[in-house]
Design a protein that fits this description.
Helix content of chain A: over 70%
Strand content of chain B: 15-25%
Largest sheet of chain B: 4 strands, parallel
Strand order of the largest sheet of chain B: 2-1-3-4
CATH topology of chain A: Helix Hairpins
Structural class of chain B: alpha/beta
Radius of gyration of chain A: 36 Å
Strand order of the largest sheet of chain A: 1-2
Oligomer: heterodimer
CATH superfamily of chain B: ATPase, V1 complex, subunit F
Number of helices of chain B: 5
Radius of gyration of chain B: 15 Å
Shape of chain B: globular
Helix content of chain B: 40-55%
Largest sheet of chain A: 2 strands, antiparallel
Shape of chain A: rod-shaped
Distance between the termini of chain B: 48 Å
CATH topology of chain B: Rossmann fold
Distance between the termini of chain A: 58 Å
Largest interface: A-B, 51 and 37 residues
Number of domains of chain A: 1
CATH architecture of chain B: 3-Layer(aba) Sandwich
CATH class of chain B: Alpha Beta
Number of strands of chain A: 2
Number of helices of chain A: 3
């Protein structure tokens, strides 16, 4: 492990690094907890997502069958005319909610007051069935989109948190620990040097005293 | 309704003709029909994407529904990344009338593998 060579071997630096290590360990523990919570949330979401996707695909397939029926009964041209004269009477209600600090969208279907643009009197029952079937499918698709987007955002956050946890575990904490060991060893060495120096001085002074006597 | 309000929460569709027809019946008028099988599919889809991007604007929000075929085409031809700066838009893939080709499931499996580190059980 590469240790910075420009470390000041002082007691102040040692204390600072010890505090930093304590903080890094605390941060590492918290991030690990966050990662585990995010993963458990992600697992729950994946289960729901699969269910919603099958439901949406089923509804859409029903809607396509209804559309084929409508085209067969009313004729392709009439269906196209009805579709183009339809107003944008549905809208989307979009909010943001937070899961473990991750902002995720919350989407809801909102039907307008105006109703469909085409005349119900002149249109066939099959056309209405097809419109309603697509509307039902759209509701499921909106829910599916919300869950998919949440899953993507959670996955991104899990990746980020994992990277931070790994960086703390593999790089930051070991690097601080090595620096602490290095400074401790240097300080001990300095202490020993000082002790040896004092011993030599004491020895010299005693020798000088003996020579004087 | 102001222009700003109109740009919020739009539902739009880029899909094949039948899917667009169906969503128009449901009341989604911002629907553009494209044909991924045609010779000029790239131009058609690029034009549709540009139209949708200008419809939402930079700060627009809402939902963009794409069929699996269109999504796959956009992904292969680097058109999908044009939507990335538009954070407010949620993209969703749906199967067309021929049924699901499993593109969405593959995407989910990839997402799972990237996040968790192990492959998803089939």
């Amino acid at each position: 492990m590469a240790v910075a060579t420009n470390i000041k071997a002082t007691r102040m630096e040692l204390l600072r690094l010890k505090r930093k290590k304590k903080l890094a360990i605390k941060g590492h523990k918290l991030l690990k907890e966050k990662r585990d919570a995010l993963v458990s949330e992600f697992f729950k979401l994946i289960e729901d997502l699969e269910q919603y996707r099958s439901k949406a695909e089923e509804k859409l397939s029903t809607a396509f069958r209804a559309l084929v029926m409508a085209q067969a009964i009313s004729g392709k041209q009439d269906v196209v005319i009805a579709a183009n004269s339809n107003s944008s009477w549905i809208s989307l209600k979009s909010e943001t909610r937070t899961i473990m600090g991750v902002k995720v969208p919350k989407l809801d279907f909102e039907a307008g007051k105006d109703g469909r643009g085409y005349s119900k009197i002149s249109s066939s029952a099959e056309l209405d069935t097809a419109s309603e079937a697509f509307e039902e499918a759209l509701k499921e698709i909106i829910k599916l989109a919300e869950l998919e987007s949440t899953a993507e955002k959670l996955a991104e956050e899990i990746k980020k948190t994992k990277r931070k946890v790994n960086a703390l575990e593999q790089i930051v904490i070991p690097r601080i620990s090595e620096s602490i060991t290095l400074i401790s060893m240097r300080l001990e060495e300095m202490e020993r040097e000082n002790f040896a120096r004092l011993k030599v001085i004491k020895g010299n002074m005693e020798a000088a005293e003996e020579a004087a006597n | 309704m102001t222009q700003q309000e109109r740009k919020q929460n739009i539902i739009s569709v880029i899909a094949d003709e039948d899917t667009v027809l169906g969503f128009r019946l449901a009341g989604v008028q911002n629907s553009i029909a494209v044909d991924v099988e045609s010779q000029n599919a790239a131009e058609q889809i690029e034009a549709a994407a540009a139209k949708i991007i200008s419809l939402y604007g930079e700060d627009g929000s809402g939902l963009l529904i794409l069929t699996e075929g269109v999504y796959d085409f956009m992904d292969r031809n680097n058109i999908l990344k044009k939507f990335r700066p538009l954070h407010g838009i949620t993209l969703v893939q749906v199967p067309d009338k021929s049924g699901s080709k499993g593109v969405a499931k593959q995407k989910l499996a990839k997402l799972f593998e990237e996040a968790i580190g192990v492959a998803m059980k089939k």
